Every structure is written in C-alpha cells, then in structure tokens.
Amino acid sequence: MEQANTVEDYLKKLSRYDIYNNVFYRGQSEKYKNITSSVSRDVGYTMNESSIYTEAIKMRTMEFDGLTSPIECLSKMQHYGIPTRLVDLTIDPLIALFFAVQKVDCKSHGNVYVFVQPEHSLNDKRVKLLSHLATLKSLKIDVIKSSYIERYSENITEDEILEFASKGAFIKHSVELQKSNERLFCQKGTFAICGNEIIGREIKKTVLPLNSIEPTMVIRIPFEHKQAVKKELDEKYNINETTIYPELPSVADYLKEKYKKVDFDLEGTYSILEVKDMSNSGARRCSIVAVLNKVLRIEEIKNIGIQIIDQYKSANDVVWVYIAKNGDDYIMRNWMIRGQWIRESLDPRCKPHLIGDMDELGYIWRFEKSYSTLADYYDEYSFTDDKILYTQNMKTFEKFEPHYKFMLNAFESGNMKDLEEYAIDNAGDITKLFLKFGDYGHSRNNEFDKYLNSFQEVALHLDNIVLWVKKEELNSHTKRYLISNCFRDAKLHFNRIKEQAMYWKKTINLSEDEYNKIDPEKIKRQEYQYKQTIPLNPDGLDVTFNLDISQNIDNTLNIRGTTNLFDKASLMISLRNSKGLLLAQNKSLVENGIFDFGKLGKKGIGFDKGKYKVDITLAIPSVQNEEFLLKAGLEYENLKGKYVDRTGIGPTISYTEEFEI
User: Fold this and answer.
1) Which residues pair with residue 170 across a beta bridge?
2) Does 3.40.1160.10 match the CATH number of domain 541-660?
3) Where does the FRG domain lie (predicted)?
4) Phi and psi dihedrals of 329, rounded to 5?
5) pLDDT (tens digit, 9 = 90+) per residue, 295-309?
6) How far is C-alpha 290 from the chain's CA centre?
7) How far, in Å, CA of 266 to CA of 456, rounded?
8) Which of 200, 329, 441, 611 has minimal CB crowding within 10 Å?
9) Which of 62, 211, 219, 280 is nearest to 533 (CA)?
10) CB neighbours of residue 609 within 10 Å
C-alpha cells in the first residue's frame, strides 16, 4: 500500500502503469475490508441469487426488453441497486479517486485499488459462464453444462466450468455495456464479475469477493487529506457529485457540502510532549513535539502547528514543530506534518535550511507522504510484547557483555595490542549482536522503549571501536582518542542497562519462569512477502545465460556472456571464493543479447588458484530501465524459467556458476 496526499501524488504513483492498457480501478472507503459484490453481502441474497434475477426481470419486463444476455441484465440490475455478483469498476483513475474520498466526514481513509488484469468482452466464454451462474437455482456441474449449451449454443467442458467459476473476470469497457447501464457513461465504468467458492469439484452458492484477486497496487488517501483531495478534483478536473451522478439530488448534496461553514476549536485537540532548547551562538532556537488527541483534517492540523509556533516564536529566532497522529507514531518519530518559522531579521548566516515550502503567512511546512502507511508497517512489524522485548535484549546482552568487558579492560589497562587483536577476531560476532538488538522491535511504553534503545547503543559503540581499530591510516594517538570516546558513551548505556534491569523486569511483571521459557532464537518476526498480482504470461521468455570466463596475464578475470533477456536489462555480478567471501562486484547492461562485466580484480594482484562462484542477478523491477520493463513487465510477468525467483521483496533472476582457476 502507498499513500497519496494530493491528486498530483496519486497520478505520479499510477504513471508506472502507463505501459498497460488493461488497468481497472476501484475506489472505496478503507472501513470496508473486502471488495464484495452486493449479492454476497447477505446470505439470503446469495442463497436466492437466481430468484432475485428472475423476479427482477418479471417485475420490470419493459426495462429489460432488448437485453439478450445475462450479463446485460445483470448490468441493468446493478444500475438500480438490485443485488448482483458484479462489482463496479472504472477505467478512469480520477473517478476511482473521487469514490475513495467522496465521504469526507467519514473518519476512515479512502483507498483506490488498482488491478492489472486480462480484460474480457461481453461475449467471452468466461463472462458468459459467470453471468449464467447467476440465473441458475442448481449449481451442479451437469445442470450448468446442459443449460449453458442450451442458452449459448456452444459447447463447454466440465474443466472449463470449474476453472471459469472459481475466478472472477474483468469486463472490457464498451459502448454495449453502457446501453444497459446509463451511469457507466459518466463514470467511465465497467465491472468485474465475481466467481464462486469451489470445494473439490463442487460449486458452492457462496460468491467470492473481488479481493480474492490480489490488486496490483492499493493507494491510500488518509482521512486528513480526503477533503483537500476532493476539493482539488472539483476545482481542477470538474469531478464532483453532479458530474458523477447526473440526477438532481446529487446537485443538492454538492452545493450543501461546498458552502457549509465549519467552526473549529483547537481546545483539547493536541498535547505537547517535548520542548527542546536548540539554541546556538547565532540564534535562539527551539523544537516542539505535539501529539494529536483526536482525528483532524490537514488544515486543522496546520492550524495547530501555527498556534504552537506563535506560542514560542516571541522568545526564539527559529521554531520547529513536529506533529504525530498518536503515541505510536510519536515513539517511531513518524510525523504527519512538520512546521518551521524563522525570524525574518535573523542574520542569513544563522538561518537554517527551509524544511519545505513557505506559505503566505511566513510559515514553512512539510507534509509527510508516507505517515499512514508507515504507521501500518510499524504496527505490524515493529511493535512487540514488552516481556518478549526485555527477554530478547537481555539474553542477547548476556552474550554481548563478555566482549564489552574484555575490550574495555584491555583499553583501560593500556593493552592496545590485545584490544586490536580481539576486535578483529570477534568483529563478525559483535556486528551480528548489534544487528540483533536493532531487529527486536519497539515497545509502546515510551520510557521502556528508551531503556531498550540502550542495548542497541552500547553495541553500536563497540561496533564502531572495531571500525576504528581496522583503520590502518590512523596514527595511534588519533585511534586511541576515537576509541576513548566510544567507550565513554558505551559506559553510559552499559551502566543504565545494569542499573535499571530489575526495575523494568518488575514493572512489566516478567517472572523468572517466563524469562527462562522465552528463547530469542525461536521468535521469528514477521517479514514482508512479495505477492505476484499481474497474471504470468504462459508464453513468457524462458531466461537463459551463457558465461565466458577468461583469466588475464595479471591474474584478473574478464567475465562476459550472452543471454536472451531483453535489451537494457541491468545485471549485477558478485564473485566469491570457496568460503563465500565477496571479492568483486560490477554491473552491466544487456545490449543485443550480450553483457560484459569488464575486468574484475585488482590490477597486478588478481586472484589466486582455487575454486570460485559467480552470481549474476537481475534486480527487482523498481531499479530497472523503463525500456526493459516495457517488455519484461512491471512484475516480470513476461519472464519465466528456473532462474526466476518470485519470493522475498520482489521478483528477481539469479544465475550461479562455479569455476576453478
């Protein structure tokens, strides 16, 4: 999921899909967790889908005159709010955006779901089968087959019935569809038709939601920005209630909302949690952090920023204000908005850089573009139970402490040789411990989270000592000075950990038995997993590589080769020895099926005799050339074969070859 605060942000994010013709959009409130057809929202509708279809036509025969197929009839029913298995879509991203932000008083965010899917005509076999299911009382396969053949005068197999019925279909935008549903013209609309749940070879009455098909992208417009985005759609693009809904009642809704006066009282809407003096010799400066006490629109939040700045600017030359939506965002320093004020008469040499754009009143603003999606990420991946956090950090600290004590003792006793040898021998272990501390997550208790931060800080300073030890260009005096500073800061955090350990163990009510039972190595944090959303092309390119490895006179290597990858593919080579140590890396673009990584290895030194492994990778699509993506696809859906990997953070290609010098 991505966040957009303005129409410009939104269109920029969508521009990556300009290479596709078959893009569909759905805008709705985030409070609706599923994209469901109306017939699936009540079990009574679902169990009586065919009766609803039949009775609707019988009760309004004239309305359905001239409509010859079930899909046309379903489209007409959808227009009048009769429960169907259709889901409204549009091919216009701005209209989908309107539906996402339409209800500006609803505190829920607005979402636009983007689907890159094959489009099907009204006469497509899949569409005919899915719409035919809506007309049948019995969903037994033999009944479906015989009635389908009778209706459409074409054969269909049982395997086709099961395949088509299990998945939804996206219907191509067409003039024919508009004939049965006039509103589609104004909304550049079309439909997806939903499939049924299938168990074994039995088709159930349950109609699946559309989100059983993974959207290629979801763009969120946070509640705070919904009203501003809706206003922008009206003023810049003439998209509003009256153009979306031509009926007269929509005009009334539009005018009432446009001219409604809203009074806003700042009292009790926020709390100031931090005020820091940031003054220097050239200017009086302060920084204020505030957290909202209620959900507000962005203009209201901006007014809070102005009120805070005005409260402090008389005593300062520079004021910064940071506003978080809630306590979790405050802990993670995940700001919604940052404000800044600089006294105009301040010496230019003492003025800080502007953090954003200045408004007509002289305030500078930066509206953060990912705060809501980051908040979701932190909630899912960063915040952890306090008892687990304490135990993970403390048990890892038990492994870290011997390293710290040995190195500190060596330094304080003046034995720099022992310190340096120990640091180099244990560098890998110290770095791993530092990374572990950083990976354990955060507490929602701000004070406890500050305590936990000491574990990472003490490990960071020890890891920095290892770096200074390895700096051969430093003289002994400079090196000792830098290491001394690291130990000075490390001691503060080390002592804090020891002194407050029992206090926090008691505060979070962690028993000794619970502490002993928690094994940090067995606790796996949830990680992001890539999902393929654009259907794979069965006729895609089966990727191949052929390498040519040659050794030069100076023992360096030349590695080049051929591939059938499309031109402008950006490849990375990594060369490792038999122990897995990385020795060299380089990049190459594919041109006319050829890649060349040039000379690898230091001139005059090269590589010793032995076994080596070369890895050639095609990185994720977001870093690839646009010309290559036009053919490979944004999710490499047009590539296939044993070298393609669709796990991890995105699709990649990896080719490995071992060789010996």
Assistant:
1) 119, 192
2) no
3) 19-115
4) -65, -35
5) 999 999 999 999 999
6) 26
7) 39
8) 200
9) 211
10) 7
